[in-house]
Amino acid sequence: MGSAAVGDDVYGEDPTVNELQRRAAQLFGMEAALFVPTGTMGNLISVMCHCWERGTELIVGDRAHIHIFEQGGGAQIAGVHSRVVKNLPDGTFDLNELESNIRHDYPDPHVTRTSLICLENTHNVKGGRVLPLPFLQEVRELADTYKLPIHMDGARLMNAAVALRVPASDILRHCDSVSLCLSKGLGSPVGSIIGGRKDFIERAVRLRKVLGGGMRQAGVLAAAGLISISDMVDRLEEDHRNARTFAQGIKMYATPFCEVDVDTVETNILLFTINSPRATAEEFCRRMGEVSEEEVAETGRGVRVLLFPIYGHILRAVWHLDVSEEDTRLALGKLQFVVNKLEQRST
């Protein structure tokens, strides 16, 4: 990063950013790509590019990151209404429900116009589930029937590609645009890439500027992105393997206090449930994340494991570049310690 060739990216003069965008477009199998500061901005820009007219509507899963965790930016900033369909446990949704939510009575002045379908792959809240290629093909066929574009929130697109053992372009052939995070499992400190047709990206450049995403000597960041898409993709399988190892450990050492469906652990995200009245999800996370004198005395070490209480009694654990096989083994040891102590506590 420190030795990256730089220029003014607002004028398209940063050679490292340009190279990242060129190689990302090749990776996506799309005409062009654009480097942006965050995935949230990438999704918002994409929504605004597709829904250029205020007052239009997109269709999105009810548990999608775009819908839940991005502050309703489509409505707040772009004037785009979201209509939701129910996400199924594997991150897909029922195609009949999808079709029934497409507005058929526009231009009736009482209704909005459906302008976009949004997908998420892998699906965060559903535990890193990978959208099956046949499902993507069916959504594409439905979208084509109604002349609608498809945007993919592909924050963890490369996890999906590795899990399916296909190039990213095989997934994106069913989509019109994508936003890929270069951070997370791919290891960059910051940045995302959006991809699409050339005219789509030309419009995206203007939107990036007005949203405050125009960066000058951004090559120092893009240099890390180049490593992410070239050297960090294949190693994602290590994260997937470590997540499955942890899931199997929960099954072996923490049942019935904790419950996990090992068969649903497809990538680097693991969801598991606290079934015992002896601890709330929040307390379990706190105990996993703190080191006590008792732990050090009994185990000979102190281990902090960061988990997130995503909703209800369900916790989320995520693997990435900085969590090794040995770290996973230590995390399982900590899990056993915490569960044992909580089971000793009377209700």
Commentary on this structure:
Helix content is 42%, strand content 15%. The protein is of the alpha/beta class and 347 residues long. The chain has a 7-stranded mixed β-sheet with strand order 1-7-6-5-4-2-3, sandwiched between helices. Strands 8-9-11-10 form a 4-stranded antiparallel β-sheet. Helix 1 runs parallel beside helix 10 (219-231), helix 2 crosses helix 9 and helix 11 (236-253) packs parallel to helix 14. The longest helix is centred in the C-terminal third of the chain and has 20 residues, at 325-344. The chain is globular, with a radius of gyration of 22 Å.
Q: Would you report the number of β strands? A: 11
Distance between the termini: 54 Å
Shape: globular
Structural class: alpha/beta
Write down the overall mean pLDDT: 96
Stretches where pLDDT is under 50 for at least 5 consecutive residues are: none
Task: Write out key terms for the chains shown.
alpha/beta, seven-stranded mixed sheet, 347 residues, 11 strands, four-stranded antiparallel sheet, globular, 14 helices
